[in-house]
């Protein structure tokens, strides 16, 4: 295994990646960084863990929207607090996701922490 030092939202991480997996790992890091920075820059959230959860939900939603034969999109689209993880327009055909995000907001509370 090879190790890469990367930065996500200005914080350094040392990641292990398989041999010849550098490009894919750096692409994944870029997607996560973009998703998290967009959420942070929207100004509604400050807690890094809450931003990470919303970014993960957004990326998972994007993956579930594609068939197995489709390639990943070139850049992640970030969700903002209280909205579904779409390209900015709320999707009314995703009530379960909206409900899940609302439950997450309620569980995290005002400070964005579980405990």
Summarize the structure.
The chain has one domain. The chain has 3 helices and 2 strands; from the N terminus they run ββααα.
Strand content: 5-15%
Count up the helices: 3
Sketch the major β-sheet.
Answer: 2 strands, antiparallel
Over all CA atoms, what is the radius of gyration? Answer: 15 Å
Q: Which structural class should the secondary elements be placed in? A: alpha+beta
Count the E strands: 2
Enumerate the spans where pLDDT stays under 50 for 5 or more consecutive residues: 73-92
Number of domains: 1
Oligomer: single chain
Distance between the termini: 35 Å
Helix % is 40-55%
Question: Can you characterise this structure?
Answer:
The structure is a single chain. This protein is α+β, with helices and mostly antiparallel strands and 115 residues long. The chain contains three helices and two strands; from the N terminus they run ββααα. β1 (2-8) and β2 (11-17) form a beta hairpin.
Secondary structure: elements and pairs:
Layout: E1 2-8, E2 11-17, H1 22-41, H2 48-65, H3 95-108
Antiparallel strand pairs: 1-2
Task: Throw out a few tags for this protein.
3 helices, globular, 115 residues, single chain, alpha+beta, two-stranded antiparallel sheet
